[in-house]
Design goal:
By secondary structure, the protein is an alpha+beta fold. The protein has 2 domains: 234 residues, 3-Layer(aba) Sandwich (Rossmann fold), CATH 3.40.50.1820; 224 residues, Galactose-binding domain-like (Jelly Rolls). The protein has 12 helices and 25 strands. The strands form 5 sheets. Strands 13, 14, 15, 18, 19, 20, 21, 22, 23, 24 and 25 form an 11-stranded mixed beta sheet that branches. A 6-stranded mixed beta sheet has the order 1-2-4-3-5-6. The two termini are 47 Å apart.
């Protein structure tokens, strides 16, 4: 449990030694024994307790907190003990040293959380106040346990934690994402494999991969495991911490979760650009000292630190690279500004169409933009190989790009793409990306080199899943039922309102805003959060952008 020294740790000299009790078992209502590890100060007294639950095996807690080990998501355990906290890390049923069958956050696992919280309360070293802790799986578990409002659970900090298993991870916009299937294969191997032929736990028999591919709609399987539908039941204070770079997994959950809560709440969204930066951040003592410890101290120790009196929202503004506090989310002062898809060309990028993006609405007779798929040049999803052998991300997708910006432009809040489209197929899908395109000199442009760009946000929608839940949809966030897929009528024009994930980003003067649209993505551009290209995806899609069908992306612009 050792952590690298940090110059700022001088003020955090250990006040307590640490006592470690591994292999404690707690018997559940059905006789299953859950195994856990207790870390606590090696001194008499009652301590507030941090509770973490995951299938990542507490026996691996001594693995160094490096980005290499992405499942190492406990935070700095020993440091919290030094601050006067106990820490309980449980292997969820069917994982690690716990008995029972793993169910990926099914109802039995959720009931275990409650029994474990009740067990912690009975221990003579607990002061009666428990806080949730941990990243990703641990964070999703926190959301779930809090929906039951169990006695003793005084607060949670879901760091990097989705609230909707269907929409946030497994079927983005109704489109199958392969991430969780790969995750489960690795999880089973980590639990079962040991060096030199030794054996870990018994095999995890639950067929999660089969369940994901079978449950293509948002049915009870997903809703049982999704706290979104019960967020109004949470009573304890919540500090929701998300990251702009975790678009394919947790970002939406941290923001939507915050918005839907009725309990005392705060939201922090960091500038972590990807999974590795988000994980590294959670391993750092300095981050916990600044962002988490004051919240825990207030709600678990009763510290008079006025933490909840400060502005409820703090976001990292990318592009400007500064932190800023907000009094509400989304910011009320943001003006939803339409940027219309236009014919072009922009002359700035090589793509299927090189369309334009403009605040000026299109004319009545502006021609539409079509493309046929699959494209003969696609080699890894929709990415092609450039003349130098390197991947080219934009050459064979649709792009719509602004002229160089005359001044810095801040976009902060939710985004909606209003897209008028038709297809020759009975179904299609839209994977859209918003990017910051860097300036490029004339020589580089003439050579055929693509301009550098920074991905800013993404959105997804399967066309047959266009049925909205009218009670949950808003102008700023369309919400689809994903329960009643309907085929398209080939050639008919439909309006698709596509949720593009929220951002806080400053597009600099001279840069361009670029929108990309295509029916697939790639492991090269989207990593493990990609969407495999299905062999039935064949046809021609047409994007309409005339005065009657004025396709546009609505950006929440903050006046300078």
């Amino acid at each position: 449990m050792n952590h690298p020294a940090h110059p700022q740790d001088v003020a955090d000299q250990p006040r307590h030694g640490m006592k470690v009790e591994r292999g404690i078992t707690v018997t559940m209502r059905d006789g299953v024994r859950i195994s856990l590890c207790v870390y606590r100060p090696d001194a008499q007294g009652k301590y507030p307790t941090l509770f973490a639950a995951s299938p990542y095996q507490y026996e691996m807690d001594d693995v160094p907190a490096y980005p290499l080990f992405l499942w190492r998501e406990t935070g700095p355990v020993e440091w919290y003990i030094e601050q006067g906290y106990a820490y309980v890390h449980a292997d969820v049923r069917g994982s690690g040293q716990s008995e029972g069958e793993f169910s990926f956050m099914g109802k039995p696992e959720q009931e275990d959380y409650l029994e474990l919280i009740a067990w912690i309360l009975r221990q003579d070293w607990c002061n009666g106040r428990i806080g949730g802790i941990g990243q990703s799986y641990y964070a999703m578990a926190q959301w779930l346990m809090a929906t039951y409002a169990p006695p003793g659970l005084a607060c949670i900090i879901p760091y990097d934690g989705l609230v909707d298993q269907y929409r946030c991870s497994n079927y983005h916009g109704g489109i199958f994402c392969s991430y969780r299937s790969v995750w489960y294969t690795s999880l089973r191997a980590d639990n079962q494999h040991r060096p030199a032929g030794k054996k870990g736990r018994a095999p995890m028999r639950f067929d999660l991969v089969g369940a994901i591919t079978e449950h293509t709609l948002d049915d009870e399987f997903w809703r049982e495991r999704s706290p979104y539908w019960r967020l109004d039941k949470i009573k304890c204070p919540v500090l929701s911490i998300g990251h702009w770079g975790k678009m394919g997994l947790h970002l939406r959950g941290n923001i939507v979760g915050y918005e839907q809560l009725k309990s005392p709440k705060k939201l922090v969204v960091t500038g972590a650009r990807n999974t590795f930066e988000a994980h590294h951040m959670f391993d750092q003592v300095d981050f916990h000292r600044k962002e988490c410890l004051p919240f825990y101290d207030l709600h678990l120790k009763g510290a008079n630190n006025a933490f909840m009196d400060a502005a409820p929202v703090k976001v990292f503004v990318r592009g400007a690279n500064v932190w800023r506090s907000e009094e509400e989310w989304p910011p009320a002062r943001a003006k939803m500004t339409p940027f219309y898809l236009r014919r072009g060309p922009s002359g700035s990028v090589t793509s299927l169409n090189d369309g334009a993006l403009s605040t000026q609405a299109p004319s009545p007779d502006e021609p539409a933009t079509s493309y046929t798929y699959p494209d003969w040049e696609w080699v890894n999803g929709v990415v092609v190989t450039g003349p130098d052998g390197r991947p080219d991300f934009t050459k064979r997708v649709l792009t719509f790009t602004t002229a160089p910006l005359g001044a810095d432009l801040e976009v902060t809040g939710p985004i909606v793409l209003k897209l008028f489209a038709s297809s020759t197929a009975i179904d299609t899908q839209f994977i859209v990306k918003l990017s910051d395109q860097n300036p490029q000199d004339d020589a580089a442009r003439k050579s055929g080199a693509q301009p550098a760009h920074t991905p800013v946000s993404k959105g997804w929608l399967k066309a047959s899943h266009r049925e909205k839940d009218l009670q949950r949809s808003t102008e700023m966030r369309p919400f689809y039922t994903h329960a009643n897929p309907q085929p398209l009528t080939p050639g008919e024009i439909y309006q698709f309102d596509i949720e593009v994930l929220p951002v806080s980003y400053v597009f600099k003067k001279g840069h361009r805003i670029r929108l990309e649209i295509v029916n697939g993505d790639s492991p090269i551009t989207d990593g493990v959060f990609n969407h495999p290209y299905h062999p039935t995806q064949m046809g021609t899609d047409t994007i309409h952008h005339d005065a009657v069908h004025a396709s546009c992306i609505l950006l929440p612009v903050i006046a300078s």
